[in-house]
């Protein structure tokens, strides 16, 4: 029942009976139990039919996004229906922060919300790096990006420090889970999400679960090789997708081709929207590279939906024109006409919301519909440690 409500969203009891193959009486009894526990609600949609939705009115969850250049954390308070955010930029030499900083930030958010640690149901951490299985540490080739996380078993270490359940995953995996739960992938059995901003990551959701593979690296489309003789990637290979469509190579391509300097990918997108032909061209080319990578991935996992998130996703048609024009995507659609490539819907919040979804799943809870208060980022205050 929980899985059906998570994957399909609000549903009638008749639809739940069909999906779960349970009797109407059994479904009714389970719904009554979920309502008594405060985990579900029934609301009418017309004069004759009602739908069941997963809700939560218990405790609080903190979701933390650890990037190379910054840390963003949010506390979701389900009792008072409020959200608290904090943002910390990192300077040179402090890339990725540290486990101690995450512990301190969680404590600070709990205090700001007027809660105690006993009110905290759990913490989710999204790392801008793959987490190896079964060790639970940042994979070896990404440790230079996050030096103070080397050999740290992320979930176990933070769980011991905080005294609450902790789940940890790659940031793109969590963003994929959020988009599958509440965004572009809702209702699909096979969903591929690609996050493209400062770096490029991917997450694959199969049958309602993040698919991590045997070593935890499933979905890492950013390190799919497009050009064997291409630029060297920080993973050690040449010609990875990351070396063509991440922020730094796009800026470098623009400067080399047009002699134009831009300080960020956001600036390139803004200039392209303002009519700058060179900026528009590099975004078009980035879209074509994405198209090649998507076509290769689709042949392996045949997703129903591929969603593009991150800054490149926000560029919209500036990138999608190139993506849709790629020969590989055109050929793919002749044999897989139902494939849908879409913009992600949750924006920059996707990883934090994915952490929320992952922790609620871990706790045996869920939200069929994301409440408005949980979407609204509070004025993210700075933090000094």
From TrEMBL:
UniProt-listed Gene3D superfamilies = 3.30.420.40, Winged helix-like DNA-binding domain superfamily/Winged helix DNA-binding domain
InterPro entries (alphabetical):
ATPase_NBD, ROK, WH-like_DNA-bd_sf, WH_DNA-bd_sf
* Pfam family membership, one: ROK
Domain of life assignment = Bacteria
List, alphabetically, the PANTHER family matched: GLUCOKINASE, ROK (REPRESSOR, ORF, KINASE) FAMILY
The entry's family comment says: Belongs to the ROK (NagC/XylR) family.
Protein's name according to its UniProt entry:
ROK family transcriptional regulator
Please give the organism.
Amycolatopsis dongchuanensis
